[in-house]
What we know:
Layout: E1 2-7, E2 12-19, E3 23-31, H1 33-36, H2 44-66, E4 75-81, H3 85-101, E5 106-110, H4 111-117, E6 129-134, E7 139-144, E8 151-155, H5 161-171, H6 178-186, H7 210-225, H8 232-257, E9 262-266, H9 273-284, E10 290-292, H10 296-299, H11 304-317
Parallel strand pairs: 1-4, 4-5, 6-9, 9-10
Antiparallel strand pairs: 1-2, 2-3, 6-7, 7-8
Amino acid sequence: MIVLGVETSCDETAVALVQNGKTILSDVVYTQIKFHEKYGGVVPEVASRRHVQKILTVFEEALIKANLSPKDIDVVAVTTNPGLIGSLLVGLNAAHTFAYANDIPCVDINHLHGHIYANYIESDFHFPVLALIVSGGHTELILMRDHYEFELLGQTLDDAVGEAYDKVGRVMGLTYPAGVKVDRLAQSGKHTYSLPLVYLDKNRYDFSFSGIKSAVLNLINTHQMKNEPINIEDLATSFQESVVQVLVDKTLQAAQEYKVSHIIMAGGVAANSGLRKKMGEVVACHKEFILTYPSLRYCTDNAVMIAVAGYFKAQKLGIPKKNQK
Length: 325
């Protein structure tokens, strides 16, 4: 089964073709980072306009690279939520129009489900699976007992972890995208600043990162008022280690309670070096778990993950291959 995936939830215009949920036939991503850098973040109106300008070109390039025509495609999969409304509408309209014009079934995909299935590109799932989704807009723990079955165990009650990284990076004087730069600084610093570890109710799997964000801001303001210097690398390390500790502890607790076999990390913050290292060290001490996370390319938004999720949703819905109809 060949699935064409379309992803336009934020500032990447992406189209990919994937066979049987594994074999990547083409993967085209047009990123808009340079257009948003001067604003310090993604501007929704700018993002949607750039999608309109690039969507057809990206479609054509993906088909050419895969050496396929529309008649070869069994299913179209497109991100429908969550995301920026204007950006989503561009991809949604393009995907449904393409599918309708070529008489191809079209399935709608939740962006977060796509991030989960980015792991399947390189590793089969061993159920039950626990997914830690960490991105700029979301922090969630999802339990999967089978393909395309999702149970929400916990989520952030305020800031997502990626949002906290970006906000902390900005108050530290870093430019967009600040979260990635915090991670880089943290690799050369020491954990010398005291910051809160917020666990909320120990029997719940919800998260809160607004407190540590405020703690960093207060620490910086206090040092400035006292004319005391701040070691920016040490502050980045202290922030990162505090955040990562909570993420790892809650993930491990949920994995043990629900007796999962496989822990996966998904989303843009799954690329974070501190999180990868700490989660790897902890899981290595528990032989009952497998840990996987996507390659760096598939942590950020892409259409391959949407195509893979589309493959499994099509199976769930009983959509057959063309030669089986």
